[in-house]
Design brief:
about 800 residues, mainly alpha, Clc chloride channel, CBS-domain, 3 domains, three-stranded mixed β-sheet, 26 helices, about 50% helix, CBS domain, Cl-channel_core, membrane
Length: about 800
């Protein structure tokens, strides 16, 4: 399982104003975090993965939301010029432009590769040679998957694709190494483009969230905005799913970033197609700007809410099933790969699994259409009324002909040009890429274009294969597969209504349209899997332009979310738990004997770690070196005595990284312990003390060993007072556990010192102490102790 190694990276997130510092290693069981839990004395929580013989699986650290309020920090603020927000707005705009260009590039490359792949087998299809078609499609797809999966497994530092769970966990306060560096971004981008083009049932949303860098919230929102041309939906998506800390200023800046991303994508798409300039630069066509443009809006009836509610229930049930099945597949995948001891063989096995998925997918998409005959295109004529005159438009569908003969034009009695076009239903639903297939399903006036057989087979295979693909060693997104799956069963429900009531062309029955219920089904399944509501509703309206169906989409989304929540967590929350990313929900949840515990009935002392290593204002160099060498704690409380005969009281905290940086600057060492002597000339600057990560960890380790062994450092001291965070938060031991949790999460804390009534340090709480399974274990012991006392 070492392939799941996520080492911590200290990335300064200026958007969230997080000042990162290095924490102790947190070894977390990737399958069941309850199996072993050992809390270090200094407050760092170590979760050991699996049995003792297993190596470390995952390392995550906590982030600080606020900078250390030390004397060095205040001096740096005095010297720093007054800062305006123009540079942040500029960077937000640049990020939006960059993400927009990336989104345009992603779609163009994918479309070109798909067209090239099917162009190679065009002659074989016309001749009905399915075997050569399969060989060519599979060969080109395997070449793409070999590079796609290889980039993730061998090139990306993490060794696994990083996506929304990692970004969400980072913005919640867990630092995850290598998620936002350039190698991860390039590897994810190349992998995602090739994975989608190869024919896997996945979407292109994967790499979009990695471009944000220090402005990750805005980058994630801009990625959604660029892919789906939905700027408002991208903003709401970050608010509802990604961001843990939110304010009005961040909302405006994210909105601006999403606007620039969508504008850039639309601007480039207006004149470039397949990297060829087509003219009309800056002319935004509705058909290109709206991803799944619904041209004909329908008059609705209150009766339409009945099948809508049914689709919501179905979406919640299937969404919960998808989440449960995907998590079980990922657990099985992790257990299998962890059983392979050699790293190279483990990585090779991941690559082979991706290739095996592609073989199954290509075999189905190539051979399954063989069993379906060519079907005439059945479409109601598109029309609009103007001065009681029917204006009929020429119609020719772009749909998968596969082995069917191309249509020939003819002029009807009304003088309108028509095409006797035929197509293969299974090829249109499976062989085409997901975006085009969704567009087919959403089209209005195509009541009987797809039959029950093709729709049922497509939804079954798409559900299973997309569930298997998600979590494999390729970078990909799930939004397109979720939309497609929901659109398929939504179309089935619409077709059932057509079979019962017939094709209705009058105004009161026009709502009985399979295309309408395909869009509602798509929204219901996405909600059933992700439990998104507001952002999903807005995105559905933006990608279809169907404002008329807004209420139906809202009802389906709400019902699907409520049904799904009865069974399990949302997919991304389940992946956070599976990957053991220490995510703190907005409200604490802890259960005991199938009942929720009221945390107001407990206090901070019930979950704190009582054995705490404290520091003093002046410490020996030898003591500090031995402490850092022998422990992995991320921070330490600092205590002092106001009078020699008084007790030591809490003053502030200092982090491990800051101590390491201080020990690397020998000129600030002192030879006496006089509390009153301190030279301002020896004060290190705030920039030198506060770093993202150690510049040279091996050198730091060597210095610690040197200080511990050399006798001359036994008489040297270091004055910690200028570098202590004197605004560190502390609560008393009897403080409510519910409110302790809220304070910890809301302020984005990393350590919370627990004091008694005399302000003496009695314990410490870290992020791991507030995780649900840790709360349940600690509070379960507390309740058991209380019951034992009552029995006695």
């Amino acid at each position: 399982m070492s392939s799941l190694l996520f080492c911590t990276r200290h990335l300064a997130n200026s958007e969230e104003q997080m000042l990162l510092a290095e924490d102790g290693p947190d070894l977390i069981h990737s399958l069941d975090p309850r199996r072993c839990c050992n809390i270090n004395a200094g407050g760092s929580a170590n979760y050991k993965c699996g049995e003792e013989k297993n190596e470390c699986l995952a390392t995550y650290e906590s982030l600080d939301y606020l900078p250390s309020h030390s004397e060095a920090y205040k001096k740096w603020l005095q010297e720093k010029a007054y800062r305006t927000d123009w540079d942040r707005w500029l960077l937000m705009g640049l990020i939006g432009i960059g993400v927009g260009m990336l989104g345009f590039l992603t779609h163009q490359i994918i479309d070109c590769l798909i067209k090239l792949k099917w162009k190679l087998v065009e002659n074989y299809l016309q001749n009905g040679n399915f075997h050569m078609t399969w060989i060519c499609i599979l060969g080109s797809g395997l070449a793409m998957i070999l590079v796609s999966s290889g980039f993730v497994v061998f090139f990306c530092p993490a060794g696994v694709p990083c996506g929304l769970p990692e970004v969400t966990g980072f913005l919640n306060g867990a630092s995850i190494q290598n998620v936002f560096n350039i190698k991860t971004f390039l590897g994810t981008f190349v992998s995602c483009v090739l994975a989608v083009a190869s024919g896997l049932f996945c979407g292109p949303e994967g790499p979009m969230i990695h471009l944000g860098r220090n402005f990750i919230t805005a980058g994630a929102g801009a990625g959604i905005a660029s892919v789906f041309r939905a700027p408002v939906g991208g903003l709401l998506f970050t608010l509802e799913e990604v961001a843990s800390f939110w304010d009005v200023r961040l909302a405006w800046q994210t909105f601006f970033c999403c606007l620039m991303a969508t504008f850039t994508t639309d601007l480039l798409s207006s004149s470039l197609d397949g990297f060829v300039y087509r003219g009309h630069f800056g002319f935004f066509e509705a058909e290109k700007g709206i991803l799944f443009w619904v041209k004909n809006l329908l008059d609705l009836s209150i009766l339409a809410f009945i099948p809508t509610i049914f689709l919501g229930i179905l979406g919640g049930l299937l969404g919960a099933l998808f989440v449960s099945l995907n998590i079980k597949i990922n657990k099985l995948r992790m257990r299998f790969f962890s059983s392979i001891s050699k790293l190279f063989l483990r990585k090779t096995s991941k690559l082979l699994e991706s290739m095996m998925i592609l073989v199954c997918t290509v075999t189905i998409t190539v051979y399954l259409p063989y069993f379906f005959p060519c079907t005439p295109v059945r479409t109601l004529r598109t029309f609009q009324l103007k001065n009681n005159t029917e204006i009929t438009k020429e119609f020719k569908r772009e749909i998968a002909e596969y082995t069917c003969t191309p249509g020939t034009p003819w002029i009807g009695p009304d003088g309108v040009k028509y095409y006797n076009q035929t197509f293969n239903q299974a090829a249109a639903l499976l062989a085409e890429n997901g975006r085009r297939g969704i567009a087919y399903l959403f089209k209005r006036g195509t009541h009987e274009e797809f039959g029950y057989t093709s729709l049922f087979i497509a939804v079954a295979f798409y559900f299973l294969l997309s569930c298997w693909t998600a979590g494999s060693a390729v970078a990909s997104g799930l939004v397109i597969p979720m939309l497609y799956t929901g659109a398929l069963y939504g179309r089935i429900v619409g077709l059932i209504l057509v079979s019962i009531f017939g094709v209705q062309t009058n105004g009161y029955g026009a709502w009985i349209d399979p295309g309408l219920f395909a869009a509602i089904g798509a929204a219901s399944f996405v909600s059933g899997v992700s439990r998104l509501t507001v952002s999903l509703t807005v995105i559905m309206i933006e990608i279809t332009n169907d404002v008329q169906s807004l209420l139906l989409v809202m009802v389906a989304v709400m019902v699907a979310k409520m049904i799904g929540d009865w069974f399990n967590l949302p997919l991304y929350s389940s992946l956070l738990k599976l990957k053991c990313i220490p995510y703190l929900d907005s409200e604490p949840f802890a259960g005991q004997r199938k009942k929720w515990l009221n945390l107001e009935l407990f206090s901070a002392r019930d979950v704190m770690e009582p054995c705490v290593r404290v520091l003093h204002l002046k410490e020996k160099i030898v003591s500090l070196a031995q402490l850092l060498a022998n422990t992995s704690h991320g921070g330490f409380p600092v205590v002092y005595k106001s009078e020699p005969d008084q007790a030591e009281v809490f003053l502030g905290t200092i982090t491990r990284l800051e101590l390491c940086m201080l020990l690397e600057n020998e000129p600030i060492f002192e030879t006496e312990t006089n509390e009153d002597t301190f030279s301002c000339d020896l004060l290190l600057s705030y920039q030198k003390v506060t770093v993202e990560k150690l510049p040279d960890p091996s050198r730091t380790t060597m210095l610690l060993n040197h200080y511990s062994a050399d006798p001359q450092y036994q008489q040297l001291f270091i004055n910690l007072e200028p570098y202590i965070n004197k605004s560190a938060v502390s609560v008393q031991a009897h403080f409510s556990l519910q409110r302790t949790y809220i304070i910890f999460r809301t302020l984005g804390l990393r350590h919370l010192t627990i004091v008694d009534l005399q302000n003496r340090v009695v314990g410490i709480i870290t992020r791991k102490d507030l995780m649900p399974f840790q709360l349940e274990e600690r509070l379960g012991l507390q309740l058991a102790s209380q019951r034992l006392d009552l029995d006695e």
